[in-house]
Amino acid sequence: MNASATLGKDLTGLEHMTPEQIRLILDTAEPFKEVSERPIKKVPALRGKTIVNLFFEASTRTRISFEFAEKRLSADTVNVAATGSSVSKGETLVDTARNLEAMRIDMVVIRHPSSGAAEFLGNRIASNVINAGDGKHEHPTQALLDLLTIRDKHGKIEGLKVCLVGDVLHSRVARSNLWGLTKLGAEVAVCGPWTLLPRGIADLGVKVFGRIEEAIEWADVLNVLRLQLERMEKGFIPSVREYYRVFGVTPERLERSPRPITIMHPGPMNRGVEIDSRVADGPHSVILDQVTNGVAVRMAVLYLLAGGRAELADAAKRGAE
Amino acid sequence: MAVEILELAHGTDDLVLIGIQRRGVELAERIAKLIEKDEGTEVPRGALDITLYRDDLETVGPKPVIGETHIPGDLTDKHAVIVDDVLYTGRTVRAALDELADFGRPKRISLCVLVDRGGRELPIQADIVGKSVKTGPDERVDVQVEELDGRDQVDVIR
Known about the structure:
The complex is a heterodimer of chains A (321) and B (158). With 321 residues, chain A is α/β, with parallel strands linked by helices. Chain A is built from 12 helices and 9 strands. In chain A, the strands form 2 sheets. A 5-stranded parallel sheet of chain A has the order 7-6-5-8-9, sandwiched between helices. Chain B starts with a helix and ends with a strand. Chain A binds chain B through residues 1-3, 5-6, 24, 27-28, 30-32, 34-35, 38-40, 42-45, 73, 303-304, 306-309, 312-313, 315-316, 320-321, and chain B through 49, 51-54, 56-70, 74, 98-99, 102-104.
């Protein structure tokens, strides 16, 4: 099973990954779920590795999830936030990373407001780089945990109808999900106000729904995106109340669906804006399963990248057992 | 081997069988069934994948497929018997001992292997051995079990 696939040095996005590489991560994540259920939630796989979590943007869930994943693999971790560090004194990203490397680190997990920051950094330092969200570009580990959650719930991804609802334009989660889902054979749709859908998205082979009712009628899974008010520079929507009235995912709307629809949300939720509380806490919501799976997926990525250098994979093939 | 385990453990009271992925899990299952037939008591059994406890991740790279680990309850004050197909360098058993320690503090841990092929790199010995075979480093010992491979067979391949 996937024995030949390896990941390379960095994980910057799903756009350039093969379906085999994505499946390798999902399959590797399975046994890591169990580690978090143990009385001692720790295995020594990454003992002695030093990982820096370099967060230039606010994050609770992703940063904590990465930190748990690192600690449960026995890596040593350091958190660097943009505020209160030399970054606020004007140091460039590459200089920050090179200084960290001079202290002999092995991996960098980076979140940055600029699209492409992770790849830019990965091309300039020797350490493994993992993208924890770069601007409006990609958030690969979020999409991977979404894929794992869908696979858990439905037993497969191929052939499922998944609709991304809401603020697709500003969403790196949506972009990574689009790549991942289409590579694994799901049918993908987006639904939202035209102002929040990227131009030309239909050219990517994605269905576009202008009304939430149509999306609900079509979909097996709704991935409800957060309305990213902080990224909106001007009036994309008339008001949040108007948005809820037209696009809010409510129990009344879901009731009209011919089948139960799995409800996902990458968090943090704006309850009563893009998603009704009764839906978020309802029986078909897997929102907290997503969070649980996030740790397992990130453990899998860290584990695979830590030992995944090409020459090591070759040694493994020669039969070191 | 089932009889030897019973003698070693003085019955089935605190006995837990822990198979090492993959062939060891099947062997533990078989031993448990034999004991069940003889004694009429069900022996708790678990499975252990030691991939994440290996000391050679750096040199062999990550194993893409990690098997399931499940341990039946707290191991504290139990007599855990590790079951594996082949005992060679002892490094797998070293990893298994470390991993078991994270699931409690058994009063005793024993080791039961189908084939002991010599060549130890650590001070580890089995308590129960199905068959000892002297082999060199250029040879391979291949254990096949019916559940996974369709037949029961042990081959020494040069």
